[in-house]
Every structure is written in C-alpha cells, then in structure tokens.
Amino acid sequence: MAMYSLIQFLSILVCYSIGSMFGDYQFLWVDLLLIIPLVALMGRTGPSDELSKQKPIASLISVPVLTSVVGQVIIMAVFEIALFLYLTHQPWYRSPPPHESGYNPKSSENVINMGVTSTFLFANFQYLCVFLAYSISKPFRKPLRTNGYLIVFLVIVYILNVYITLQPAQWLVKLLQLDRSFPNNYLFIILITMLINSVVCWFYE
C-alpha cells in the first residue's frame, strides 16, 4: 500500500508539471479495479510448509526495509520521468493549453491530454510491477502460483491494461478521459518500458 501511494504521488507530480491532473474515473480505475482486489487477494497466498532458519524482519524501520522501499521508489521515478521526458520531446507531442485566469486542473483539456494519458497508462503497469516484485515467496510463503485467484486476477488485469493502452473501446476512452492521438509506436514503447521496469524491480528486490 505504501508503494501504491508513492507511485500515485509520483504520477500526480508528473501531471502537475504540465498543469494537469488525473480524471476522477482514472482514480477509480486504479483504486477499485487494481488496488482493492490486489489487497484482498494477496493474503490468500499461504505460509510456507517448511520452517526457515532465517528470521523475518521484525521492524519496518530497518536498513533492509528502507533500502527496498527507497530503491523501488527511485526505480519507479526514473522510469516514469524518463518516459515522460521522451514523450515531451517528440515532434508530435501536444502540450496542454496555457493557463489562464480561473484555471481548473480538472477541466477537460487538463485531463484529456498526452501527458496525463501516458502517465496514467504507465502507472497502471507500475502498480502491478511493484506488487510482483514484493510477492517473492521464499522462504516464508508459498509460491505465488499457488494463489489461483490472484493469478487469474493478474492475468485479467494485465490484459485489460494492455487493452486500454493499445486499442480501447470508444466508451472506455470517454469514461477514462484518454487522449488517443499517440502514434502506435509510442504505445508499444510504453509496453516495452514497462517490461524493462518490471525486470529491474524484480532483480533489485
């Protein structure tokens, strides 16, 4: 949950840098479709059948825990900011309109733009990426594959995230307030960056 909050905080900072903000249904997509089911299902992974000689960490304020959290935050920030900077330097990139009096960060032009959509799509994968990194089972829990409900959910939600990234239905585009003016090659860059991000997170953890 802490990493979820930190990833969302990073995403909002990126959006604020261009005077924009996630839409209400984008927040609902993350909270209701991704995070709540993950939290509900992750506890179904059972304890290991064998006792380990290794003692679990007894304190949250310890070097291994802080090193893990800080390191993962840095990794997430580097990938998210790098993707955003790459986007803003493309010749086809369109920035949000200039701020005027009565500026509202949640007005349609400040939600439906390339920067917000790219950040939202990439962050959706980052939540799952860091969840998997922290689901390493040994030596205290059973392997993740033993949690059938969670595996099914992860497969479904990964497919959904790829779907809304590449070719979502028009009603879903309107609901989530997505900008669909990206060239196709950039959408695949989001997916490739996500894969690299996932591998780095996994090996770091």
Write down the Rg.
18 Å
Run of helices and strands: HHHHHHHH
What's the story with the biggest beta sheet? none
Topology, number of strands: 0
The portion of residues assigned to helices is 55-70%
Kindly estimate the percentage of residues that lie in beta strands according to DSSP: under 5%
The averaged pLDDT comes out at 84
* Tally of helical segments: 8
Q: How far from one another are the termini?
A: 16 Å
Gross morphology is: elongated
Poorly predicted tracts of residues: none
Would you give an account of this structure?
It contains eight helices and no strands. With 205 residues, it is an all-alpha fold. Helix 2 packs parallel to helix 5 (114-133), helix 2 packs antiparallel against helix 6 and helix 3 runs antiparallel to helix 8 (184-204). The chain is elongated, with a radius of gyration of 18 Å. The two termini are 16 Å apart. The mean pLDDT is 84.
Q: What brief labels describe this structure?
A:
about 200 residues; mainly alpha; elongated
Concise summary:
The protein is mostly helical and 205 residues long. It has helices at 2-16, 24-42, 63-88, 108-111, 114-133, 148-166, 170-176, 184-204. Helix 2 packs parallel to helix 5 (114-133) and helix 5 (114-133) runs antiparallel to helix 6 (148-166).
